[in-house]
Automatic annotation (TrEMBL):
Signal peptide: none annotated. It comes from the Bacteria. PANTHER family: GRPB DOMAIN PROTEIN (AFU_ORTHOLOGUE AFUA_1G01530) (PTHR34822), GRPB FAMILY PROTEIN (PTHR34822:SF1). It holds the Pfam family GrpB. InterPro entries: GrpB/CoaE (IPR007344), NT_sf (IPR043519). This is GrpB family protein.
Amino acid sequence: MPTHPLWRPFEIPSDEEIAAARVNAPQRGIPVEVVEPDPAWPQVYGELAARVRAALGDRVIQIEHVGSTAVPGLAAKPVIDIDLTVADSADEAAYVPALEADGWVLRIREPDWEEHRLLRLEEPECNLHVWSPGSAEPRRHRMFRDWLRGHEDDRARYAAAKRAAAAEGFTDGMHYNNHKSPVVYDLYERIFAADPDHPHDPRPRG
């Protein structure tokens, strides 16, 4: 059977891969915290999106609230995740200085992962993920968000996985992400298998 076009194999990045992607990222030493859902998160996203649009103007092709804070009723780290699409995420000179002038700091550079860039804001806490048009990962993020919005059982399962990962006391957000990755992967398989546009098993065979 063919695979879903957004399917990815289950892979957990190594510490070496994590370190290689980081740009002047400080070791915070603060355990990851998962908190109860805050109804103010969509408003905070709106304010942050407005800041990005003010900084970049028509360089913003698309901007979306993603991640757990975009799912009503879902426990989450109190960090807003935003997907931003620009003309070319690899062309940092075209957008990073303008965002830095607004207080954002470049923290992650991943040329081998769809030229992903991540800029960080500390107050309010936000991860701004930057992509180029046609990137698969923002589409995956939207499908994951929308699935959790509409499936209470899977939302509860994911919340439990997040709380279990946080209970491990990880001070590195990537280690926290790795710990819950098996559940995330399983959820993506359910999402892709149920996609009416691609009605087949999402995993490759043979």
